[in-house]
Amino acid sequence: MNWTDEQKTAVDLRGKDLLVSAAAGSGKTAVLVERIIGLITDEKEPVGIDRLLVMTFTKAAAGEMRERISEALKERLRREPENRYLKMQYAMLPRAKIATIDSICSNLIKQNYQSLDLDPSFRVAEEGELRMIKNDIIRELLEEKYAGEDKAFSGLEESISGGGSDTRLYDMILKTYDFIRSYPFENVFFDKIYSETEKIMKNKPEELPWMKYIMKDISETLDEYAELLSAAEVMCKDPTGPEKYLEAIDEAGEILLRLRLCVGEGYEKLREEALISAQSFSRLKIIRKDSCDEELKEAVKSIRNDFKDAVKEIAEEYLALPYDVLCMSQRGSARIISSLVELVREFSKRFAEVKNDKNIVDFSDLEHMALRLLWRYDDNGELRTTELADRLSEEFYEILIDEYQDSNYVQEYLLKALSAERFGRPDVFVVGDVKQSIYRFRLAKPEIFTGKYYESLDYRKASGNPEETKIKVELNRNFRSKREVLSSVNSLFSRIMRKSLGGVEYDEAAVLRPGAQYPEELNEENLRNGFSPRTELLLVTGDKEPEDESVGDIGMREAEERLVADKIRQLMSLNDRDKAFKVRDKKTGDLRPLEYRDIVILMRSPASCAKEMVNSLSLSGIPAYAET
User: Fold this and answer.
1) Helices then strands (H, E): number in the chain?
2) What is the per-residue pLDDT across 507-529, written as a single tens digit (0 to 9) for each?
3) Whose CA is closest to 477, among 429, 511, 431?
4) With contact defined as beta carbons under 8 Å apart, do 430 and 456 qualify?
5) Helix, strand or coil for residue 269?
6) Mean pLDDT across 115-123
7) pLDDT in tens, 542-562
8) What are phi and psi of 123, to 5 degrees?
9) Pairwise CA distance, residues 45 & 85, whole Å
10) Measuring CA to CA, which residue among 127, 314, 309, 352 is closest to residue 214?
């Protein structure tokens, strides 16, 4: 295989903690497999597959990884059938530590259960069973609270449930519990929350992180509008621009300047100015149609109105409360938080007791029990790795982690315990792409990936610095999509993705670059038949909102289905197949007319609308099926 320089570096670089930022379609799995094969078959220092720890995100990914390594080893054995070392590695493959984090933790626990005072016959409980146990515990806990006279709990219940159903309070307890369990050392985290609520009770709002965050957010919003208003001014002064809007843009600029000056003067001053400013916008002057460029007019109007809405939001949402009311609200919130945390801590204690009685665990328990095996607090309260962790660190030559952008802090501490980095031997290889992090709702912490990304040095800059141990490699060549697709993706995300929105700057290092070669005659043939190679955006719009939202939604959906069917018929050109859209046949490499099986329709929520799409296409004579 012809590797790019970046791929070859990711495969061959040794003796470093290596982070590979692998964009979509960049061949990350192939690189990961080749690195493992390279380690196993290294001529100077071969590494037995039993000394590698490979963590994947799903069982399917672990199975695929194992299969690919198997195929690669079999190919080597075909070339070297007498190689006893390769035969031994192939024989050891079924026992190789290539698994999900849950499986790795489970095996660690089973091998060291005596250190946890755990019955080795434990089982991982089904989700339905766990849900019933949780509900029973919360119901019992809330009944006890209602029977007592706990004013803090009454405030919590009133704040969350409003005197109505307990459902929201149930959900809040479970969500808070899950959130806390995504961090290591649960009791330490509870104590930290209590400490923070004490600070909220005692300190002024401007001394606390939440107020600093709000002020920072307001400041960044104003900075963004400073750029937009400047651009709007340029558009107004354009010979074909909406010159009559210039006065309104100047007025907005003055409001912006006053607000920016007040940000540094504190909450009360900024609130006073924001309330005045929100009412200070004049009406836009009327501009006759065709008297200026319509696109420039709409762009300037949109910027000015968006800024007006932003100022209103700052005044009515961010700075809604007078300062004295804000201080009272802050103290009340601290009492509510303390009461919630107390409930969650008691829930956690009882949940653990029930699971222990039933000799069951959940997936979160596996990780936290593994943490207890690998970390301990010494007599001075300092966190230390255990003898088991130190021994495992010596056993593993390298730890390789796939989909690293979806890790959480519990998993990060497991990695730290198993790594030999603390002994001066970098041995961690992680691969992922923060742009593809989709599991924040499952409490993944993509900031772990971005933190390491920004503290690591690009491999080209590190080549002359052997002391540098944290290295990163960017795999941004896409071998899956055509240039036109990548160009559209880059055009969109370079405008909207920032470090503050998405965790990474969509800059030259992040943009997708074409890696696959497509024959030029493909585009030429399609152009002759009237098909542009550029990305098309097909929009279904309505002039006004219908009174019945459900009817309107169905109408829009049907319109979208018809639009998709019309586009497929156009591409297929059933009346004259010579004029159909052309694709390259994977097997023969020849150009051929598009077939129905070449077309895929991706949906955001297929479970709710895929069936209707299939039915609609079938009525249009287009064969289709759905996978949900």
Assistant:
1) 23, 15
2) 888 889 998 877 776 678 788 88
3) 511
4) no
5) helix
6) 91
7) 654 444 444 445 578 888 999
8) -135, 155
9) 13
10) 314
pLDDT band (50, 70, 90) for residue 163: low
Do the Cβ atoms of 334 and 201 come closer than 8 Å?
yes
What is the gyration radius of the CA atoms in the chain, in angstroms? 30
pTM over 0.90: no
Owner of token pair 């007319």? 593
Residue 159 to residue 162: CA distance in whole angstroms: 6
The position carrying tokens 């982070």 is 19
- Nearest of 398, 479, 495, 412 to residue 22 by alpha carbon: 479
Instruction: Please answer whether residues 10 and 18 qualify as being in contact, where contact means their C-beta atoms are separated by less than 8 angstroms.
Output: yes
DSSP structure class, residue 282:
P
DSSP-assigned letter for residue 502: B
Nearest to 515 by CA among 473, 483, 474: 483
Using the CB atoms, write b or e for 332-368: b if 16+ within 10 Å.
Answer: ebbbbbbbbbbbbbebbebbeeebeeeebbbbbbbbb
N-terminal to C-terminal alpha carbon distance within the chain: 35
- Reading the block at residue 230, the tokens are 């400047």
Residue 606 confidence (pLDDT)? 85
Q: Which two tokens stand for residue 161?
A: 């449930």
Whose tokens are 């071998």? That residue is: 479
